[in-house]
């Protein structure tokens, strides 16, 4: 159940509009009456003791992260048994909306410029100790701010990745059709930095072809095949097409070893 418009949370935040709704929670456009500024508020639907503890842990992790391509996490609070995360509000359309509005793929330079900024943000996340994974990179989660900078949003699903145990510090398997790698569907292998690399490759594929890639589990089972991006859009340069396919390899160990390595392929 979502919050009605004009709901006041902790005598400070006014709910103005519902921005997104899903199985994990809702995101609202809100107004901070204390600081007189618009904000985004994420509501967590899971209320088990484990889910509440995890949400609080995420808030502490994300609040210390500062990067130009990541929205700032400003506050975490509980209200009437629900958990909320207050974040910087990023206005503007997301990149999938831009593709749909134009009715055609983004120009290579424009898509590449946005993806380089996303790479820089994800590289920053992966360099934390332990690394932070986003796990839901897709065109809908990349927004262009008013000053033309890309912002990678919905960082609230991010998880820390403990290299020593090769495990993410969070529970349920989470996957977005077309953009998540096979390991996020099966749960047989934990998500890792290579998982975000797959999602970035799939995102760039979608931006440059105006098509959502096939689900990775269908590619893995042989029920679907991945059409090379340059076969759909002849304007994609061969080196960029190779970089996209490198990122979308089905086995994590066959993808670029780091975001920085993949970024260098994009810039070659």
Walk me through the structure:
By secondary structure, this protein is an alpha+beta fold. It is about 35% helix and about 20% strand. It has 2 domains: about 10-90, Phosphorylase Kinase, domain 1 (2-Layer Sandwich), CATH 3.30.200; about 95-265, Transferase(Phosphotransferase) domain 1 (Transferase(Phosphotransferase), domain 1, Orthogonal Bundle), CATH 1.10.510. The strands form 3 sheets. A 6-stranded antiparallel beta sheet has the order 1-2-3-4-6-5, with helices on one face. α3 packs antiparallel against α5 and α5 packs across α8 (about 240-245). The chain is globular.
Strand order of the largest sheet: 1-2-3-4-6-5
By DSSP, the count of extended strands is 11
CATH superfamily of the largest domain: Transferase(Phosphotransferase) domain 1
Return the CATH topology of the largest domain: Transferase(Phosphotransferase), domain 1
Helix content: 25-40%
Helix and strand content put the structural class at alpha+beta
Shape annotation:
globular
Strand percentage: 15-25%
Q: Indicate the CATH architecture of the largest domain.
A: Orthogonal Bundle
SSE sequence, one letter per element: EEEEHEEHHEEEEEHHHHHH
* Whole-number mean pLDDT: 90
Domain count: the total is: 2
Sheet having the most strands = 6 strands, antiparallel
If you compute it from the alpha carbons, what radius of gyration comes out, rounded to the nearest whole angstrom?
18 Å
Q: How widely separated are the two ends?
A: 48 Å
Low-confidence stretches: 163-173
């Amino acid at each position: 159940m979502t919050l009605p418009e004009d709901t006041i949370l902790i005598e400070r935040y006014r709910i103005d509009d519902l921005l997104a709704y899903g199985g994990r929670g809702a995101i609202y456009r809100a107004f901070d009456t204390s600081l007189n500024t618009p904000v985004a508020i994420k509501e967590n639907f899971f209320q088990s003791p484990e889910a509440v503890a995890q949400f609080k842990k995420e808030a502490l992790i994300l609040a210390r992260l500062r990067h130009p391509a990541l929205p700032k996490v400003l506050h975490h609070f509980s209200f009437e048994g629900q958990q909320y995360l207050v974040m910087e509000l990023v206005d503007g359309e997301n990149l999938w909306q831009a593709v749909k509005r134009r009715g055609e793929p983004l120009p290579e330079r424009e898509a590449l410029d946005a993806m380089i900024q996303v790479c820089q943000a994800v590289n920053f996340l992966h360099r934390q100790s332990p690394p932070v994974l986003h796990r839901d990179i897709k065109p809908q989660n990349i927004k262009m701010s008013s000053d033309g900078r890309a912002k990678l949003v919905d960082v609230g699903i991010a998880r820390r990745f403990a290299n020593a145990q090769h495990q993410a510090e969070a529970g349920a398997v989470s996957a977005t059709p077309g953009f998540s790698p096979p390991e996020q569907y099966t749960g047989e292998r934990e998500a890792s930095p290579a998982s975000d690399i797959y999602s970035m490759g799939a995102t760039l594929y979608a931006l440059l072809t105006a098509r959502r890639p096939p689900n990775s589990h269908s590619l893995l089972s042989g029920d679907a095949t991945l059409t090379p991006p340059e076969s759909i859009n002849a304007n994609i340069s061969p080196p960029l097409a190779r970089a996209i396919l490198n990122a979308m390899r089905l086995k994590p160990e066959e993808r670029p070893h780091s975001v920085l390595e993949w970024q260098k392929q994009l810039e070659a």
